[in-house]
């Protein structure tokens, strides 16, 4: 069996943890399996390197930042190889150049285009554990790129896909994917399995267990993922194609506080005004999430929408700069809001789910500002102060508790 | 003009020094020159990484150690590029993979085989300052190698050679090459120029200004080197072919305390016994320096030789293990010795130099244990406690003082 195992930065943060990971990998190796290990940089290394770069040049070119950051994973993989060698197991570390992880050119946020297998297969054939730097690629200029935060998950999935791995295990510091954040919802239960689509919705809604792009790639190449803890032997959560599993009505509840509602008021009520607003925002790389249009006073219309908190200032600037052209009379915003979502592949065929969610919120006296839905997700915007109460109410309402 | 400038770890140890180096390079760039910069790892990074590796595995494979250590230079070059960009100068950092610095396979002590120029020339053509990682290469397996301590000097010379640079400047924390270590000999004078051969002798005798292999390579490819300070504007010392320069009788005085004398006593006085001793040592990778053979008691012979201090224990073990076969009756050693050398290209045609040296030592009551000479060097082994007195005496004797 060929197993790809990915460990995050906290799993390799110090000597003891490095040896802990080494031993776990060696168990599989000694059982006769081929083992490929993908590692992130140790502990807070990436943040420390970013801070170092900022002292030199806060506007450093992303190419140079990638050149700097990728040293972090190279340190972890070489130390891991040394640890395995200390345990008398042949191991070899490889960086993105050595594997040839071809990526797009975009520094800081590259995507894999093609991953060569020759070197890894050669090392596996000589019965070595192969340890690969996560998070990094090489573009067509032979320059080093990074995949953006959490990119090591994507490295693991990409390798699992091209190597036709039998398993791709993503190790983290939680036991798997939960019905809700266990720190907020005490009755939250670990899920045995979720579909790719559910995982995608959960990931994009604030469940920080898996990097979103890695799930997209796993879905595309049908790589079965297991999310599990590096700290214990818990079985974890399997992420796989939905057709193979019992479809739960609702799989999980997720919350996202990093959102803000913006309202543009008094737009001319004629075709194209809404389009012009969102077109202007998109041209400035501002992603808009939930949208609500309502009738305003005296033949005008109002539009409310949410953006990520970090985009608020930029969005306001852009809207102000185009106020006249967009026929906006006034701009208001509210930062004290949060998104609450329920996700479940079974939702598609069950029309009563939304009503059930709204009932739970009503019973807890939580006011709903906006609503947005997808095939397997319902999201509501509520006051930020109510988010924990609301999460618990909805979690209980659907009987997700352990 | 194409200029290669190499800066050591202490020159890039912190933010201020990085900007200091950046500004010096930018001066040449703004004057219209093409500038290639070679950097070592920041400050004590290499030592810290070695210490880190030792906590994981003191017997780590050198391949993995090289993978680890080479991150140090990658950090310096990316930070330097950021610093130059902060000063509004286009700059790009390149590692050994990106330049393609082909080396032999020997990890920890590789040598360059071939260095590609295409990428560097391309970046220079687009008027960028090119910053290259020193100390590292890539072998035929696509694995990262290091050149051994001080290898960044060699990187600079190799690049100067293949790029046909007009200048190769080696920046250090001293003003250049001196007639003797200025910390020991107060009257020591900076030399304006030395020949490659003189520099080689001085380097191998303890003058730690230049990596020996870099001087060999500079000689082979006729790369004119300038050794100068990164801390001031002093002109430095030119290292070049001897034919172009006035030959000084004696160029400099060097001392080396890291030496120990070993004596093997009572060998059978027949052909081949000395050969057997040195053959055995060589087979165990122990380099022998000065050798002295003398007649022992009762038809036997004694042989004394010097080895580096770090090899003492190993040498004694090897000799003891082969005592019978080598017909050794007794082994003694003395760690309290030091080598004193004078070097000068003019020595070859001046037979009185040795006598002058011995006279200076005699006048200072310094006892000579052993003597060794080359065409441009005379070395004596003396008691370690006399080394500073002896250096000053010889330095004065040849009138080398400022």
From TrEMBL, chains A, B:
Catalytic activity, EC: 2.7.2.4
GO CC terms of this entry: cytosol
Gene Ontology terms: biological process: diaminopimelate biosynthetic process; homoserine biosynthetic process; lysine biosynthetic process via diaminopimelate; threonine biosynthetic process
Keyword Cell division: no
Start and end residues of each ACT domain: 262-333, 342-402
Residues given in the record as ATP binding sites: 6-9, 172-173, 183, 208-209
Binding sites annotated in the UniProt record for substrate: 46, 73
Reactions it catalyzes: L-aspartate + ATP = 4-phospho-L-aspartate + ADP
Pathway as given in its UniProt record: Amino-acid biosynthesis; L-threonine biosynthesis; L-threonine from L-aspartate: step 1/5; Amino-acid biosynthesis; L-methionine biosynthesis via de novo pathway; L-homoserine from L-aspartate: step 1/3; Amino-acid biosynthesis; L-lysine biosynthesis via DAP pathway; (S)-tetrahydrodipicolinate from L-aspartate: step 1/4
Pfam families, per database record: AA_kinase, ACT, ACT_9
Keywords for this protein: Amino-acid biosynthesis, ATP-binding, Diaminopimelate biosynthesis, Kinase, Lysine biosynthesis, Nucleotide-binding, Repeat, Transferase
Protein family (similarity comment): Belongs to the aspartokinase family.
Biological role: Catalyzes the phosphorylation of the beta-carboxyl group of aspartic acid with ATP to yield 4-phospho-L-aspartate, which is involved in the branched biosynthetic pathway leading to the biosynthesis of amino acids threonine, isoleucine and methionine.
Official protein name in the record: Aspartokinase
């Amino acid at each position: 069996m060929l197993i790809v195992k990915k460990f995050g930065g906290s799993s390799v943060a110090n000597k003891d943890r490095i040896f802990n990971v080494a031993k776990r990998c060696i168990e599989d190796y000694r059982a006769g399996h081929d083992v490929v290990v993908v590692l992130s940089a140790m502990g807070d290394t990436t943040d420390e390197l970013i801070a170092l770069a900022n002292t030199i040049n806060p506007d450093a070119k992303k190419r140079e930042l990638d050149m700097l950051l990728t040293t972090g994973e190279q340190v972890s993989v070489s130390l891991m190889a040394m640890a395995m060698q200390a345990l008398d197991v042949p191991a070899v570390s490889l960086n993105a150049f050595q594997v040839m992880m071809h990526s797009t050119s975009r520094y800081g946020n590259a995507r894999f285009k093609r991953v060569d297998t020759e070197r890894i297969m050669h090392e596996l054939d000589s019965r070595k554990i192969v340890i690969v730097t996560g998070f990094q690629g090489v573009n067509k200029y032979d320059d080093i790129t990074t995949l953006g935060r959490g990119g090591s998950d994507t490295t693991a999935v990409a390798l699992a896909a091209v190597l036709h791995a039998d398993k791709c295990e993503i190790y983290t510091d939680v036991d798997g994917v939960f019905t809700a954040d266990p720190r907020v919802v005490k009755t939250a239960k670990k899920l045995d399995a979720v579909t790719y689509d559910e995982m995608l919705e959960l990931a994009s809604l604030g469940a920080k267990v898996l990097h979103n792009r890695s799930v997209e790639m796993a879905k595309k190449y049908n790589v079965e993922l297991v999310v599990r803890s590096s700290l214990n032997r818990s079985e974890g959560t399997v992420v796989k194609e939905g057709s193979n599993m019992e479809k739960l009505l609702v799989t999980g509840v997720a919350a996202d506080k990093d959102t803000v509602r913006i309202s543009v008021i008094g737009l001319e009520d004629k075709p194209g005004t809404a389009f012009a607003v969102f077109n202007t925002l998109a041209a400035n790389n501002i992603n808009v999430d939930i949208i609500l249009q309502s009738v305003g006073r005296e033949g005008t219309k109002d539009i409310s929408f949410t953006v990520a908190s970090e985009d608020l200032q930029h969005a306001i600037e852009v809207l102000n700069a185009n106020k006249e052209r967009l026929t906006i009379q006034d701009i208001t915003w509210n930062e004290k809001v949060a998104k609450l979502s329920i996700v479940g592949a079974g939702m598609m065929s069950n029309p009563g789910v939304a009503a059930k969610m709204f009932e739970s919120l009503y019973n807890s006296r939580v006011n709903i500002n906006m609503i947005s839905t997808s095939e397997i997700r319902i999201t509501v915007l509520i006051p930020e102060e109510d988010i924990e109460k609301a999460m618990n109410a909805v979690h209980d309402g659907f009987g997700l508790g352990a």
